[in-house]
């Protein structure tokens, strides 16, 4: 049965305005949002400046007119901007670093071919990736958890392949997600209830989770209502569009795989890690994948494994696998867990739960174990394109047996603004408690200004948000809301690695080098924030490539907020003039004499075959 619009549906035809104040005059930047349930042309945001008799004190210090000599001096205004053409329709779901044709040229051993393999410079596309015909703005959360417009990801294979497991169902113009999974066909909620009997999911101590081999990410989708945020990942493989479906649902996810390269997360990041029949050979390669999970698991954190080989004696017939093979598989997992000094807390049905010790005091015996090869402590966060090793990540030192290695965290949401242990201990050079607290106040002020520029930020219109240069996570913390989530990116060339601090705040993020494509599908994010990013990458790679990548991963009629030096933003503005974006420069909230400016942009709506920006 197709989902039909109704009068109370927030996506039903409506007009939403973003108020932008120009200097001392009251002008409005109107986003005419013509939203239709599961069909239509999306938000159809018309960029229109019109006088209005509203309260001119909304943003009294913002001024689109800049007041610095360098603004025009470095740009030849008479030169016509370069115009970027649409890519061929076959690139509608193009993922540059996980391209299927390129992947098949790499070895299949240890999933190497499913890892990141980015195009060489001469192979890069210099065009705009189109949206598919009929593309519409996704449903607002929480409806998006259960429904995705068919036109946005028109792939029916999983509705057949996973029919009895309740992953996904096709109903006319939408896909419906009943919340089932291979290990929880009765629904993720009931499955999470089972886990909550062992793991303290409800008291705020388990906030960040990692879902390896996530499918359509129903586990993460249903954890959200319990104030747990999951980072879900799966490869781009035969389960076409599984990560794309997750993102269309409004669930945090990236394309990824456990292969030969370390996961792009810092050590001690997650309160819980999870595998539900994820097909990862946990006992293989001397337990290398379990050791990598141990690296990113916080002391005291939990690892959940459900499905084969757990309780193989009772399930081998249903799994149609030899008893001896399953027995050996579980034996290896148990041996590695013992080496890691994990404590088994639960095994019932097809679910097993282990807990990582809070420190190394209870594991002193492994120092003399010939199989306990320890990694270098200083390399625990050195992960970008670094080979995964079958070594044990050492705990930080403690002064007594009860102390939590690396520091004990507050429950969430108190955790969001409490001083993170890595800051309190001085583990991040140049970041003191005072620096951290000052950064929080600064970002509260900045985000307050953003909300005056763009009134949609708090409306639920923007669910998936990307911060391309996240710093200490102040932007995401100031935005914190059940309506949205932020992917905090730590550029690999950043002066300070603060991604561990971001996770200690109960937020999620990932390492990435913006000279390459991001590990996601086109049209992933509703809102992108880029603070100081183009100054950071000014001499590192082509700014045009970064902007084209932003266009690829931004939804039609999505918004971008750039915050940078005025000279840099003028260059950015010139490039975007040929990208079917509409932009406006805004003064810093402290006034026109501040050299840092804000550039706001909206990507126009257009789809495959559209030669103009007009919506038909």
Task: Describe what is shown at a glance.
The chain is an alpha/beta fold. About 25% of the residues lie in helices and about 20% in strands. The strands form four sheets. The protein has a seven-stranded mixed beta sheet, sandwiched between helices.
In terms of topology, how is this protein built?
Layout: E1 16-19, E2 27-31, E3 49-51, H1 70-73, H2 100-103, H3 143-146, E4 147-149, H4 157-161, E5 169-171, E6 174-176, H5 188-196, E7 208-212, H6 218-223, E8 229-234, H7 242-248, E9 253-255, E10 270-276, H8 284-296, E11 297-306, H9 312-319, H10 323-339, E12 342-348, E13 351-356, H11 421-424, H12 433-453, E14 464-467, H13 474-479, E15 485-491, H14 499-504, E16 508-512, E17 525-531, H15 533-536, H16 543-553, E18 554-565, H17 566-576, E19 581-587, E20 596-603
Parallel strand pairs: 7-8, 7-10, 8-9, 10-11, 14-15, 14-17, 15-16, 17-18
Antiparallel strand pairs: 1-2, 2-3, 4-6, 5-6, 11-13, 12-13, 18-20, 19-20
Describe the structure.
It is found in: Endomembrane system; Golgi apparatus membrane; Membrane. It is a single-pass type II membrane protein; Single-pass membrane protein. The chain is α/β, with parallel strands linked by helices and 616 residues long. Among the domains are: 187-379, Vaccinia Virus protein VP39 (Rossmann fold, 3-Layer(aba) Sandwich); 420-603, Rossmann fold. 23% of the residues lie in helices and 19% in strands. The protein contains 17 helices and 20 strands. It has helices at residues 70-73, 100-103, 143-146, 157-161, 188-196, 218-223, 242-248, 284-296, 312-319, 323-339, 421-424, 433-453, 474-479, 499-504, 533-536, 543-553, 566-576; strands spanning 16-19, 27-31, 49-51, 147-149, 169-171, 174-176, 208-212, 229-234, 253-255, 270-276, 297-306, 342-348, 351-356, 464-467, 485-491, 508-512, 525-531, 554-565, 581-587, 596-603. The strands form 4 sheets. It has a 7-stranded mixed β-sheet with strand order 9-8-7-10-11-13-12, sandwiched between helices. A 7-stranded mixed β-sheet has the order 16-15-14-17-18-20-19. Strands 1-2-3 form a 3-stranded antiparallel β-sheet, with no helix packed on it. α8 crosses α10. The longest helix has 21 residues, at 433-453. The radius of gyration is 25 Å and the shape is globular. The chain starts with 15 loop residues before the first strand and ends in a 13-residue tail after the last strand. The model is unreliable at 1-77 and 612-616 (pLDDT under 50).
């Amino acid at each position: 049965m197709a989902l039909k619009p109704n009068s109370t549906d927030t996506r039903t035809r409506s007009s939403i305005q973003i108020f932008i104040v120009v200097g001392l005059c009251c002008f409005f930047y109107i986003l005419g949002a013509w939203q239709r349930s599961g069909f239509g042309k999306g938000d159809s945001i018309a960029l229109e400046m019109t006088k209005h008799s509203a309260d001119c004190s909304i943003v009294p210090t913002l001024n689109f007119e800049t007041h610095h000599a360098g603004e025009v001096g470095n740009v030849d205004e008479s030169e016509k901007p370069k115009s970027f053409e649409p890519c061929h329709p076959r690139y509608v779901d193009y993922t540059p670093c996980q391209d299927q044709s390129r992947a098949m040229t790499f070895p299949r051993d240890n999933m190497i071919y499913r890892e990141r393999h980015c195009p060489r410079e001469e192979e890069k596309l210099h065009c705009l990736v189109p949206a598919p015909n009929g593309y519409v703005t996704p449903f607002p959360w929480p409806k998006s958890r259960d429904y995705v417009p068919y036109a946005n990801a028109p792939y029916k294979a999983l509705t057949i392949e996973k029919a009895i497991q309740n992953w996904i169902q096709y109903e006319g113009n939408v896909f419906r997600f009943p919340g089932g999974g291979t290990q929880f066909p009765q629904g993720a909620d009931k499955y999470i209830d089972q886990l909550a009997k062992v793991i303290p999911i409800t008291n705020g101590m388990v906030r960040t989770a990692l879902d390896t081999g996530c499918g359509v990410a129903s586990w993460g989708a249903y954890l959200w209502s319990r104030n747990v945020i999951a980072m879900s990942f799966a490869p781009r493989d035969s389960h076409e569009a599984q990560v794309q479906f997750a993102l269309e649902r409004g669930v945090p996810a990236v394309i990824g795989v456990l292969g030969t390269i370390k996961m792009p997360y810092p050590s001690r990041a997650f309160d819980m890690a999870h595998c539900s029949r994820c097909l990862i050979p946990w006992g293989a390669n001397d337990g290398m994948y379990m050791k990598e999970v141990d690296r990113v698991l916080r002391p005291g954190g939990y690892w959940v494994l459900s499905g084969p080989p757990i309780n193989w004696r009772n399930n081998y017939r249903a799994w149609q696998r030899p008893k001896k093979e399953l027995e050996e598989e579980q034996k290896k997992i148990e041996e590695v867990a013992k080496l890691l000094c994990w404590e088994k807390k639960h095994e019932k049905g097809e679910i097993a739960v282990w807990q990582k010790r809070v420190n190394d005091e209870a594991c002193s015996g492994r120092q003399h174990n010939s199989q306990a090869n320890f990694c270098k402590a200083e390399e625990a966060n050195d992960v970008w394109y670094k080979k995964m090793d079958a070594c044990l990540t050492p705990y930080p030192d403690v002064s007594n047996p009860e102390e939590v290695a690396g520091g004990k965290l507050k429950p969430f949401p108190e955790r969001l603004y409490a001083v993170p242990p890595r800051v309190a201990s001085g583990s991040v050079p140049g970041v003191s408690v005072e620096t951290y607290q000052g950064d929080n106040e600064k970002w509260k002020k900045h985000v307050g200004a953003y909300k005056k520029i763009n009134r949609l930020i708090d409306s639920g219109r923007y669910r998936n948000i990307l911060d391309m240069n996240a710093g200490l996570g102040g932007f995401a913390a100031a935005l914190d809301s059940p309506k949205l989530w932020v992917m905090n990116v730590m550029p690999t060339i950043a002066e300070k690695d603060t991604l561990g601090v971001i996770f200690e705040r109960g937020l999620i993020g990932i390492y990435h080098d913006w000279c390459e494509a991001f590990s996601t599908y086109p049209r992933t994010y509703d809102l992108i924030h880029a603070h100081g990013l183009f100054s950071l990458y000014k001499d590192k790679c082509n700014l045009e490539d970064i902007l084209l990548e932003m266009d690829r991963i931004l939804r039609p009629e999505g918004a971008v907020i750039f915050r940078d030096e005025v000279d840099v933003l003028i260059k950015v503005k010139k490039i975007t003039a040929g990208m079917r974006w509409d932009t406006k420069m805004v003064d810093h909230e402290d006034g026109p004499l501040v050299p840092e400016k804000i550039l706001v942009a909206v990507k126009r709506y257009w789809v495959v075959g559209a030669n103009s920006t007009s919506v038909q």
